[in-house]
């Protein structure tokens, strides 16, 4: 793969690692400075002044490095202790080691002091009481200022543990506004003004849904109401500029909730500034300090408006839609809190607050909200309705075919297998490259193998990534996000409809008239690569995109009729598109067939252009998996355990999960690269076909070429207890075993490293057949051998549901069989309980089992529901589940 070759030459040792030990030595013991420095310092300042200055600067520098995550909390406390110790030792040493001098010397006259030779003692002795009081006050004052965060808000560390932030690499994006100075490039009103926009849509999205809905909403506001919307990522703009948005314009928030009721990563800076509280779920806004909002200039406000410091968002009007899932405890809490906060700062909410539920039909929730809120928005901005709107379709992209031999062609920017949004990233050392969803790291796949018997109904695979050459770090229980490559079937059908050569170089730049402000990572690519790597060519196209993008590009009446039927009749759309999960290529072929059947003339026939196609498709979104390795055991390698998704749709056609099948295809490549054997020679070829698989398996391709896949890590709160002696009871059937495998290996590692008090580790694992899909069998047996030797209460219970057709057993049955043991570990010994896997049936059944056994064993006077509630509140009940 043509990526990162230069970066890979760098070993982690090449990266600038802060020298922690020397920091402590230097600050704590006042290591002598060089002669040159010495002369400058000693001729200009007294030793006491230097001591104070050094102490303050050491305190400040340590605090800065801790705050930026370069230093862990224990190290930081240690360093501070050493500095203060150094300060007082120097002070006491100076006073007590010169008793004779103290006795002998009368107070020297100030005019006689030779600064170069003045001792610390003499500079102290020269002070009168007032000086001492002044200096002591300064020291206390400065320390209070430096540690104000801890003094005023002692729980800040618990929310943002420095351990996590310490793993953050140096950020190479332009940082969000650190001062309240308006930065024109990061100012929403300035950007709106220069682009002539009157609606700004801000999306907070973790996996792309909110981003996609924002773009759809923007297009429909443009087409239906002649609005001039702009879709932005909050990471690129300053929240402080909201106060300057023109009262005649409108802000629309489209925010999804993630984690346990948390803000998405791209909203985290805005969120922290708006709701800077240690308890993000229950906040009394009146006690919060608002962000340092920018003061609008007179010409930014009409004569009816004024700026009010107490209500800095008084001139702001906004609408809001949240994306959430009712199965989560804190349903849509992100949008609810941000909206209430804006209102508390004076902003006005127009239309209903939309609360989309991903557990049901979030698309439907969005469409209903959009239809109800759009007239309010149009009225606020004084826009016309579609009938007299002149706007129809505006492409998001301007696409130009480029001759590879022309001077316009920039080879440096061509076809990088990288999603990077960072300029000149390849010139930076890997340790300085921040890895996140906008900037994943193409990580080397070091292992990929199938875990189930080849005849099993479904395959589960183990994939391992090497993160040694990147700034990625993880802790056990975190999640891995993977960007897949599309399989050939849908890519090829789109290339055929476009009628282009997939290797033709093209330049794709965002259309300045479009509402979409994002761009491809590199502007030069090929038709084939854009469709393979960057776009979602599998998910069905929504009704409003059919209406706003495709319909305006269809000329023939039969073509329009075909589309209008899908746009206006929800049942027709469901039957033809959503239920069969019809891909964009399949749908376009149906349109083309409809025209052919009606004998539409060649001039009238639909012709697909790349810019129209790109405006129709969603961006490729990363797929999220629980990490199945332990960071204690393998900090530089992480693994995922993935079930390969294949099924037949309502019409009996094959449907494939894009990422799981892609990862499955890598098992061949890895096996060939590792063992030099060609595994596909003796088995039926993989379906669906991936070009990368065929290319890397072809005889002309070097076996030494690394297979690299773009990934990043998402922090999770699914964690083992800090105290290793706490018992853990874990339930994880199927791939639910994934994060629990990481937990088990972590505890094995603890035992192996000599920790003698590792508490009981109990696993309930289940699958269909013991001899076909008992994944990680040998590893589990080995692990529980070690764990039970260290603690006899460490046990593994298995349930294989289809081995005995007369009696199906599931994990919850094993829990009932061992209910006393489970109750004792959780409620009598204060253990943690973990569930991982399918959120619908399995989680419900296991929760019922937990409640039942609690009822039976808790005894009179105790409420089983309260006990379970307490378990949840104290963080001892944790779920990592998927839908
Ligand atoms: C790991 C994870 C955590 C989530 N946590 C919550 C939550 O606490 N509350 C909620 O209402 N929805 C929660 N959701 C549901 C998402 O908000 C919902 O699926 C949304 O459509 C995702 O939008 P996005 O793709 O723009 O990030 C969570 C989803 C995931 C994957």
TrEMBL record:
Flavodoxin-like domain mapped to chain residues: 199-374
Span of the signal peptide: none
Comp. bias intervals (Polar residues): 162-182
Annotated segments matching region Disordered: 161-190
Family annotation (SUPFAM superfamilies): Ferredoxin reductase-like, C-terminal NADP-linked domain, Flavoproteins, Riboflavin synthase domain-like
CC terms in the record's Gene Ontology section: cytosol
Name of the protein this chain belongs to: NADPH--hemoprotein reductase
Chain ranges of the FAD-binding FR-type domain: 438-721
Natural source organism: Smittium mucronatum
């Amino acid at each position: 793969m043509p990526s990162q070759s230069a970066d890979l030459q760098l070993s982690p040792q090449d990266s600038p690692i802060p020298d922690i030990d020397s920091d402590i030595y230097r600050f704590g013991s006042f290591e002598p400075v060089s002669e040159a420095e010495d002369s400058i310092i000693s001729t200009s300042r007294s030793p006491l002044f230097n001591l104070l200055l050094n102490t303050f600067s050491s305190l400040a520098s340590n605090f800065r490095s801790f705050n930026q995550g370069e230093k862990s909390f224990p190290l930081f406390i240690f360093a501070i202790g050493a500095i203060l110790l150094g300060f007082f030792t120097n002070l006491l040493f100076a006073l007590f080691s010169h008793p004779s001098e103290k006795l002998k010397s009368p107070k020297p006259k100030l005019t006689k002091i030779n600064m170069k030779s003045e001792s610390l003692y003499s500079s102290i002795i020269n002070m009168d009481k007032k000086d001492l009081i002044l200096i002591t006050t300064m020291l206390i004052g400065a320390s209070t200022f430096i540690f104000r965060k801890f003094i005023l808000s002692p729980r800040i560390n618990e929310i943002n543990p420095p351990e996590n932030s310490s793993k953050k690499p140096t950020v190479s994006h332009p940082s969000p506004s650190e001062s309240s100075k308006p930065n024109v490039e990061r100012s929403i009103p300035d950007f709106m003004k220069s682009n002539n926009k009157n609606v700004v849509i801000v999306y907070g999205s973790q996996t792309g849904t909110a981003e996609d809905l924002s773009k759809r909403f923007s297009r429909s506001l443009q087409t239906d109401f002649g609005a001039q919307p702009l879709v932005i990522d909050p990471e690129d703009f300053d929240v402080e500029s909201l106060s300057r948005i023109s009262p005649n314009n409108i802000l629309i928030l489209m925010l999804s909730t993630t984690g346990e009721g948390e803000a998405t990563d791209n909203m985290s800076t805005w969120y922290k500034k708006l709701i800077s509280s240690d308890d993000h779920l229950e906040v009394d806004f009146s006690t919060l300090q608002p962000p340092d909002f920018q003061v609008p200039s007179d010409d930014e406000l009409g004569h009816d408006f004024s700026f009010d410091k107490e209500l800095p968002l008084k001139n702001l009007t906004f609408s809001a839609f949240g994306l959430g899932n009712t199965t989560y405890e804190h349903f849509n809490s992100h949008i609810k809190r941000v909206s209430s906060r804006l209102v508390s700062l004076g902003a006005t909410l127009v239309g209903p607050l939309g609360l989309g539920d991903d557990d049901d039909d979030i698309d439907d929730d969005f469409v209903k909200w959009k239809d109800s809120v759009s007239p309010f928005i149009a009225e606020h901005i004084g826009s016309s309705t579609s009938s007299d709107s002149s706007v129809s379709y505006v492409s998001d992209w301007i696409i130009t075919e480029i001759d590879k031999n022309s001077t316009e062609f920039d080879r440096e920017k061509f076809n990088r297998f990288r999603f990077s949004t960072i300029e000149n990233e390849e010139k930076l050392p890997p340790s300085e490259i921040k890895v996140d969803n906008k900037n994943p790291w193409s990580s080397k796949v070091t292992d990929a193998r199938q875990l189930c018997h080849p005849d099993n109904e479904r395959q589960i695979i183990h994939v391992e990534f090497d993160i040694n050459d990147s700034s990625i770090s993880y802790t056990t229980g975190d999640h891995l996000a993977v960007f897949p490559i599309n399989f050939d079937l849908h890519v090829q059908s789109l290339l055929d409809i476009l009628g282009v050569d997939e290797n033709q170089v093209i330049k794709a730049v965002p259309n300045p008239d479009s509402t979409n402000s994002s761009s491809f990572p590199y502007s030069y690519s090929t038709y084939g690569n854009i469709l393979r790597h960057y776009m979602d060519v599998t998910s069905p196209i929504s009704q409003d995109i059919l209406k706003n993008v495709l319909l305006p590009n269809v000329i023939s009446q039969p073509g329009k009729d075909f589309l209008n039927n899908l746009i206006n009749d929800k049942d027709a759309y469901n039957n033809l598109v959503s239920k069969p999960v019809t891909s964009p290529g399949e749908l376009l072929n149906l349109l083309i067939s409809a025209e052919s059947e009606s004998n539409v003339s060649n001039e009238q026939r639909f012709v697909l252009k790349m810019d129209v196609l790109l405006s129709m498709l969603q961006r490729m979104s990363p797929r999220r998996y629980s990490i199945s390795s332990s960071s204690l055991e393998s900090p530089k390698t992480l693994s995922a355990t993935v079930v390969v998704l294949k099924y037949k749709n309502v019409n009996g056609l094959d449907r494939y999960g894009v990422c799981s099948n892609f990862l499955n295809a890598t098992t061949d490549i890895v096996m060939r690269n590792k063992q030099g054997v060609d595994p596909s020679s003796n088995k039926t070829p993989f379906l669906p076909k991936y070009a990368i698989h065929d290319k890397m398996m072809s005889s002309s391709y070097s076996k030494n070429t690394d297979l690299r896949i773009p990934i990043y890590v998402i922090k999770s709160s699914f964690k083992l207890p800090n105290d290793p002696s706490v018992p853990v009871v874990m339930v994880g059937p199927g791939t639910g075993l994934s994060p629990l495998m990481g937990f088990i290996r972590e505890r094995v590692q603890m035992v192996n490293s000599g920790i003698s008090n590792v508490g009981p580790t109990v696993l309930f694992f289940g699958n269909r057949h013991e001899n076909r899909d008992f994944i990680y069998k040998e590893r589990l047996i080995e692990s529980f051998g070690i764990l039970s030797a260290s603690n006899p209460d460490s046990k593994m219970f298995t349930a294989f549901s289809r081995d005995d057709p007369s009696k199906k057993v599931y994990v919850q049955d094993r829990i009932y069989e061992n209910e006393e043991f489970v109750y004792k570990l959780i409620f009598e010994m204060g253990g943690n309980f973990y569930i991982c896997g399918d959120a619908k049936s399995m989680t419900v059944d296991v929760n019922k089992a937990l409640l039942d056994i609690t009822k039976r064993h808790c005894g009179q006077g105790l409420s089983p529901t309260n006990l379970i509630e307490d378990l949840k509140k104290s963080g001892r009940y944790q779920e990592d589940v998927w839908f």
